[in-house]
């Protein structure tokens, strides 16, 4: 009997280590004869673009585990409910049956857990002996029940590092201006919150951090920035792309006129420029620089977290064990252990409880002014960015390997 794994949604720096953890665990435990991989997610499986990872050279897999982005390719394929369209389910189950698949592992976020739940329910209703397990992945850290998600720690480390470096760059003159760093985060502020980790000596780099969980107050923003600029001749701001006004509307949409992806999610961007315009129009200063970190947040292996890498491998490894034990329709979640030195373990949560829901940044971790974070937030974030994975180099540059076509 065999199993299959696929990746879905946005990439992360450590998503491939989950695949590696699964393949490595199967080599050790010898549960399945072959670990197949669908290229470009469930869409690739339906198109029969499938490879056998068990036949891959072990040295290539070692490089693959430290490769950022989705090394098997990804997709944003919305699986309809079987009551609406059963053809996809019939086709998929037929392909899986041909390959003698007994376990299907889907690595992704909210929408991927929705797919996992739907497939598990269909298999159960039709007495199909295939287990479906979701493996968490998203830099947004917005999956319910899990303490955090693989991919977030590395993104947080990159953001904190970028905050330190650009803070230093923006403070070199006697007559400095204002610097605005924009992070991803359509619905939640977890990524922007990582800016709170950035310090130079005892000085916090970010004067202000703005998250979507608190309605953006334009007047207060202008007053706070004006006062700080008068005092320090410099202001550093970290802002989430998903900032909203008091009516719940995004401050800005993408230049594509509020475009949406295949899952109906609004595509955002431009908050830093929006804030820059507010500052200039308020007459505070014209010296305002902005930086939108963009996709670097999800592919910067050079600034990845070893804790994140190890946990991504852990959830892949444990997913295999859970499926072998007969579990189906679940997501592997991470539990933060109550130990003096940070450690974690996994547990199972029903995928349909995670699907299409959002874990927001706790508002009690945002200061009373709504423009920075509390010590509790920093203590939560600190262990997730710890240490650096050792990736291979070629001619002094990172050596990477993907298997997608």
UniProtKB/TrEMBL annotation:
The active site is at 140 (proton acceptor). SUPFAM superfamilies: Phosphofructokinase. Non-allosteric. Its cofactor is Mg(2+). Mg(2+) binds at residue 110. The record marks 111 as: Important for catalytic activity and substrate specificity. It catalyses: beta-D-fructose 6-phosphate + diphosphate = beta-D-fructose 1,6-bisphosphate + phosphate + H(+). InterPro entries: ATP_PFK, PFKA, Phosphofructokinase_dom, PKF_sf, PPi-PFK. Substrate binds at residues 138-140, 184-186, 241. Keywords: Cytoplasm, Glycolysis, Kinase, Magnesium, Metal-binding, Transferase. GO terms for cellular component: cytoplasm. Pathway: Carbohydrate degradation; glycolysis; D-glyceraldehyde 3-phosphate and glycerone phosphate from D-glucose: step 3/4. GO terms for molecular function: 6-phosphofructokinase activity; diphosphate-fructose-6-phosphate 1-phosphotransferase activity; metal ion binding. Diphosphate binds at residue 10. GO terms for biological process: fructose 6-phosphate metabolic process. It is found in: Cytoplasm. Its EC number is 2.7.1.90. It holds the Pfam family PFK. The record marks 137 as: Important for catalytic activity. Residues 3-303 form the Phosphofructokinase domain. Its main location: cytoplasm. Catalyzes the phosphorylation of D-fructose 6-phosphate, the first committing step of glycolysis. Uses inorganic phosphate (PPi) as phosphoryl donor instead of ATP like common ATP-dependent phosphofructokinases (ATP-PFKs), which renders the reaction reversible, and can thus function both in glycolysis and gluconeogenesis. Consistently, PPi-PFK can replace the enzymes of both the forward (ATP-PFK) and reverse (fructose-bisphosphatase (FBPase)) reactions. Belongs to the phosphofructokinase type A (PFKA) family. PPi-dependent PFK group II subfamily. Clade 'B2' sub-subfamily. Homodimer. This is Pyrophosphate--fructose 6-phosphate 1-phosphotransferase. It comes from Clostridium fungisolvens. The lineage of its organism: Bacteria, Bacillati, Bacillota, Clostridia, Eubacteriales.
